[in-house]
Specification:
about 325 residues, alpha/beta, Rossmann fold, 434 Repressor (Amino-terminal Domain)
Length: about 325
């Protein structure tokens, strides 16, 4: 038996509303100033009655806009990425855009693949938390679309950046502990060479302390017990008062609680600090002083820059916007 169901198209809507297809198209694209309120209401009623779903591909061909913005984050295992996306979405959606989050999973090749995918699809813009160099991004992103760098200071970037004051915040926190008699620092971090924000934080620590050990944790695969034992070895190898300085909140949450429970961190002989994205880390040990950054605000600020670039027809500058982290 032949299926008599018929999906409504733009001509059906125009016929029912007694307007032209151009008028329906203007309604769908939000150009209501070019029609009367009565006409707009007839089109709306016709769309509802016919349950018409606009063909987004066809609309993109006409408007040259998908209203989609790609956000490539470093690792969705981090609270940072989730809060960043919330901030981005809050601004994009209020301006008629939709954010799509893509996860590079701390893998450089995966990031390159995602960049290529964004380049070949109809995203209106890209907000990027990059591992790749500027030249790599430029070589892959051949299509003209606004780009905003977020969280990673990127020298010689031709695009605007929204970052945290990583160096200054790390130096301030380190100086605070040095002034209070802590002289040994254990930097707990992902691969230092992979991301500029980590290197800036490390530089800030070195600017205020001389006795610094580094313990790198692979984001791809690591043995929790092995890292825990290495931390204990570093904590007990000296009589100096020691600070474990985590360069991201994930490592605070992974490794500090057991050290507190076992008495290695007592806030007298040893303590911990680091960059925190949420209030969770502070609840582990209320006496810990942490560097609170605001990924939601970073994301919202990056989205504001993106929306302005889209309003300006894709024109961009190389401004650097700093959203300060607070040591408290």
């Amino acid at each position: 038996m032949q299926n008599d169901k018929h999906s409504a198209n733009i001509k059906d809507v125009a016929a029912l509303a007694q307007v032209s297809t151009a008028t329906v198209s203007r309604f769908l694209n939000g150009n209501l100033n070019r029609m009367s309120d009565a006409t707009a209401e007839r089109v709306r009623v016709a769309i509802d009655k016919l349950k018409y779903v606009p063909n987004s591909a066809a609309r993109q061909m006409t408007t040259k806009s998908s209203k989609l913005i790609a956000l490539i984050v470093a690792n969705t295992d981090d609270y940072f990425s989730t809060e960043l996306f919330k901030g981005v979405s809050s601004i994009l959606e209020s301006n008629g855009y939709i954010g799509t989050m893509l996860d590079s999973d701390s893998d450089l090749q995966r990031e390159k693949n995602l960049l290529a995918a964004v380049n070949s699809h109809t995203f209106d813009g890209l907000i990027l938390q990059p591992f790749s160099t500027i030249s790599t991004i430029e070589n892959i992103m051949r299509r003209r679309a606004p780009i905003v760098i977020v969280d990673r200071e990127t020298p010689q970037s031709p695009w605007p950046q929204v970052v945290t004051n990583n160096f200054d915040a790390a130096r301030e926190a380190t100086a605070y502990f040095v002034k209070r008699g802590f002289s040994h620092f254990i930097v707990l971090t992902s691969d230092l060479s992979a991301a500029t924000n980590r290197r800036e934080r490390y530089r800030g620590i070195l600017a205020a302390a001389t006795n610094v050990d580094v313990l790198e944790v692979s984001e791809a695969s690591y043995n929790h017990r092995d890292i825990h034992e290495k931390l204990i070895q570093l904590l007990t190898k000296t009589d100096e008062r020691t600070v474990i300085f985590a360069l991201k909140e994930r490592w605070i949450l992974e490794f500090v609680p057991n050290l507190v429970l076992q008495g290695y961190i007592d806030n007298v002989k040893a303590t911990a600090t680091g960059f925190a994205d949420t209030a969770v880390s502070r609840r582990l040990e209320p006496k810990m002083k942490l560097i609170s950054q605001n990924p939601f605000l970073l994301g919202a600020s990056a989205a504001e820059v993106m929306v302005q670039a889209l309003k300006d027809g894709g024109e961009q500058n190389d401004d650097v916007i700093v959203v300060p982290a607070k040591f408290k």
